[in-house]
Task: inverse folding
């Protein structure tokens, strides 16, 4: 394999495909690995995204996983490293964005890097260091109710500084609007002030494209997926349909969802209102020892032969907190993830070859249950969510097409639209 142009470390599985999607759209051939590969990657690609399940683990574990990914990417000759986190900057005062960033900086002997989760295509913008989701500040968007990483402060400089020992500063929109040269000058000023990490404003794709050339020689970038649209041109690449080509799709269709985001709640409702076959999973029945996965598969068996089906544990914030109060936050989440993952594998074993998975933690559990080691990134469904093609021991032969959707991403009709796009 030729040396990699870009080596990426993503802190969850849907975030990894989100980043890979933007790189493919900008002309890079991309493979996403599930965890750190045991050996060299046997693929002729421009970028690799190593997908970790490190967003909500203990900071020390997240650091160890990320450094392991870094060493593997360096062994593949990656010329630049990209640490990718969520466009809603999902984290707690303990991390893991800040601690992982600083560990990567230490390992790369990097004295300066940037941080921006901006992704205007998905209505995530940063202005004066404040993160907006659509027209409201992050802490008014529903993210304040996230079951694992509630975001109650939209000021990213303040949020990141609480997680870092290095000084955090800001490159604001007025500087970004003047282009790469102005961004470079501002970086020099910040370094002189002892700043090592700078939050960067971006309110449009033009801002991200202006940012790209200024970041060309930076050893480490940290961001959501938006910054990726301005990077391939630094390596002389341009958009190409060949970058997103996948094998032809076939087989049965299904959706599994463990996300409780507002966006996914709307998507579940839209699917049902369109007459889709849907089954809700009850966490309390799982906790009571009922084989909910077997029940769901028995329900799906006669239906999936005729139409796409949806199995979901998605619920509104009040219902989620009620279940967490009875079972505990971590146990409730892990229990549902295991069940949804078992259902996903069962569906694939029964002939599903087009599978949509909603929710970051749910996606991680499902790809592991399916024995997926790497995925080829294909065409975009909605901003941040591509179809992928993967080999799985549950789908012998041609493998399966799979889409891993972050909970907050996608239009209301996503679960219907996804299969139309693939067709």
Result:
């Amino acid at each position: 394999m030729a040396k990699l142009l870009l080596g990426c470390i993503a802190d969850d599985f849907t975030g990894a495909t989100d980043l890979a999607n933007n790189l493919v759209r900008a002309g890079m051939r991309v493979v996403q690995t599930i965890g750190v590969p045991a050996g060299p990657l046997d693929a002729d690609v421009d970028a690799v995204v190593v997908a970790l399940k490190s967003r909500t683990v203990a900071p020390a574990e997240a650091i160890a996983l990320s450094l392991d990914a870094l060493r593997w990417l360096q062994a593949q000759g990656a010329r630049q490293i990209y640490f990718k986190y969520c466009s809603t900057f999902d984290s707690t005062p303990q991390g893991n964005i800040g601690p992982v960033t600083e560990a990567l900086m230490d390992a790369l002997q990097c004295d300066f890097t940037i941080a921006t989760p901006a992704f205007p295509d998905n209505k995530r913008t940063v202005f004066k260091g404040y993160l907006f989701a659509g027209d409201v500040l992050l802490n008014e968007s529903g993210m304040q109710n996230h079951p694992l990483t509630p975001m109650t402060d939209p000021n990213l400089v303040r949020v990141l500084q609480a997680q870092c020992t290095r000084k955090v500063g800001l490159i604001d929109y007025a500087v970004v609007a003047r282009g790469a040269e102005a961004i470079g000058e501002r970086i020099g000023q910040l370094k002189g002030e002892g700043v090592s990490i700078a939050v960067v404003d971006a309110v449009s794709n033009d801002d991200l494209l202006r940012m790209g050339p200024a970041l060309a020689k930076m050893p480490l970038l940290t961001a959501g997926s938006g910054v990726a649209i301005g990077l391939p041109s630094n390596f002389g690449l341009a958009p190409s349909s060949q970058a997103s080509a996948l094998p032809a799709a076939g087989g049965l269709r299904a959706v599994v969802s463990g996300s409780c985001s507002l966006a996914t709640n709307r998507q579940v409702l839209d699917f049902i209102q369109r007459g889709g076959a849907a089954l809700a999973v009850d966490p309390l029945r799982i906790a009571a020892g009922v084989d909910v996965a077997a029940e769901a598969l028995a329900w799906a068996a006669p239906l999936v032969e005729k139409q796409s089906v949806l199995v979901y544990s998605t619920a509104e914030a009040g219902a989620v907190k009620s279940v967490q109060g009875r079972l505990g936050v971590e146990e409730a989440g892990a229990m549902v993830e295991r069940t949804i993952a078992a259902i996903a594998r069962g569906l694939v074993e029964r002939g599903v070859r087009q599978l949509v998975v909603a929710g970051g933690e749910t996606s991680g559990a499902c790809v592991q249950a399916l024995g997926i080691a790497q995925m080829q990134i294909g065409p975009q469904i909605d901003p941040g969510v591509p179809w992928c093609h993967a080999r799985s021991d549950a789908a012998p032969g041609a493998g399966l097409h799979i889409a891993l959707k972050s909970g907050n991403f996608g239009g209301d009709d996503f679960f219907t639209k996804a299969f139309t796009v693939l067709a």
About this structure: The longest helix spans residues 329-349. The mean pLDDT is 93.
